[in-house]
Amino acid sequence: MSWDLHLDRLKVETVTEAGIFGLDGSIWASTEGLKNVTGEQIKILAGESAAMYSCGPKVGAMKCVMLKDDREDLNSLCLHLKTSAADGNLAVCVGKSIQAIVLVIGTGAGNQLSIPVYQLVSYLRGVGY
């Protein structure tokens, strides 16, 4: 499967960074700004959200604040985060398929980011990824 093609579909107007990662933390495809995301960070983003509310996760070097976990909502499938003010208050949307994490960061509202994430996560789940 060409992951770069799927990465290109994530890059809507308001998306500044995008990546597709294996649940083991491997990078399947990523823009330059997400190449420093660690395997441990991916495992945290794929895990339970309860701990993320009290101690927000990091995405690369950026500290995030947990806003809402809609990963179980079949109309959203997204974990919504926001970076700290020091990192520009960017919106972060994370989706989880069977084998991967889809991650986008951008300047738009969370729902602008969640649409491409939702579409890709739905597709990946449908084809067993």
Automatic annotation (TrEMBL):
Q: Which organism is it from?
A: Cyclopterus lumpus
GO function terms (MF aspect): actin binding
Q: What is this protein called?
A: Profilin
Per the UniProt record, one Pfam family is Profilin
Signal sequence range: none
Alphabetical UniProt keywords? Actin-binding
What does the sequence similarity comment in the record state about its family?
A: Belongs to the profilin family.
InterPro entries linked to this entry: PFN (IPR048278), PFN_euk (IPR005455), PFN_sf (IPR036140)
Keyword presence, Glycoprotein: no
SMART domains recorded for this chain?
A: PROF
Keyword Disulfide bond present in the record's keywords: the answer is no
Q: Which gene specifies this protein's sequence?
A: LOC117747872
